[in-house]
Amino acid sequence: MRIVLFAFVIAARLPAQQITALRFGHMVDASGRSTPDAVIVVQGDTIVSVGSGSRAVPAGARVVDLRRYTAIPGLIDVHTHMTYWRDKANPSVPGPRSKDSVVMAAAANALKTLETGVTTVRDLGASNYTDIAMRDSINKGVMIGPRMFVAGFGLSKLMVPRETTPSVPARGRVRDTAEIRVAIKAQVDAGADWIKMYGSSGSFQNVTGVQTFTDDEMRVAAEVAHSYHKPIAIHSYGESGGRAAMRAGAESVEHPAGVDDATLAEWARTRTMYVPTIDHNRFYAENAALLGYNAKQVAELDSFRLLNLATARRANAAGIKLAMGSDAVYWMFGENTRELGWFVKAGMSPAQSLATATTNAAELLGLPTKLGKIAPGFYADIVAVEGDPLRDINVVIDKVRWVMKGGLVVVDKRTP
Description:
The chain is α/β, with parallel strands linked by helices. The protein has helices at 99-115, 130-140, 177-190, 215-227, 239-248, 261-267, 279-286, 288-291, 295-318, 339-345, 350-356, 359-364, 394-398, and strands at 19-28, 34-43, 46-52, 62-73, 75-80, 118-123, 147-150, 156-157, 173-174, 195-198, 232-235, 252-254, 273-275, 382-385, 400-405, 408-412. It folds into 2 domains: 19-74 and 370-412, Roll (Urease, subunit C, domain 1), CATH 2.30.40; 75-364, Alpha-Beta Barrel (TIM Barrel), CATH 3.20.20.
């Protein structure tokens, strides 16, 4: 067994002119199509051709024999918190504070994410712009990790009078639309790819879902984000906040469990994507003792997870597009793709579930011609799994054996 374990390196890549042919037993995608004896030809960070059989191997190409495995596109997790790190052995001890220390610690989260076959993430909220520092380190090749799209500080509502507590718009703590405008500009100026807004209460063991920003404030936030050519994701654990976020024109709404059928029917006519993050409540409940949650809180987490699953089932039936988001924090990294199993429980076929982490997610990120498929011109983000993902989604969750991101092999767990 060989696993890439180096977090901070100058990434070694084949010479730009080197042609590599990857041979797989099968190649499958979210359309449900399966190609036997697949050959994927890669040059640099890009796929240049896809074919089948020996004739598809270019003369002089370096050949990598992966015919024991099935190829799927590199997966996309559209809701993570990569810089949230804690030691599972000492969970009560706070994580590091300085920007450099946080990024160094988060390197482990990045590697565990790659091992799940996730080659791209959308990271929705971090302190001190550690997410931007981490993204830039990965892009420069001095850190091994998934491709990152980041949001800086998420916008949260200050519910106290102005004279009592000063707001800090640069850090996302705002009271009104004027401060929302300042906060969004601050994230854009810092280098954020996305804007994140917390439209309701609810986080960790708290599943209350009380709407915090008004409908109008969410609308203004979306308008301001779009004026800077930035998409916006709005967090809402509850029905009213989820409806308001969808109507505001957010590109995605996160965790809106309990949304009614009339709202779902309206939602299906928009381009707003639904990111349920069902599995993260499972993680909190299973790790309650380590996280210090009591029995009542665990019961509430379990109840919310069931409501979230039921809402995802109704949303899928209504024709709303869903995207896979783990909402991974702490030691949940390495479990990023367990969300796919919940989508199958919600009534999706394995292919439809795979779409949430490939084509749907790529569409949400605005990169449908670069991510989410194995096709010429796309990034060479390719995952080898053992088994048939179109018959059993657990193959994707549990049997990743080899991962290429942008033409670079970042995980190799093949047995000799």
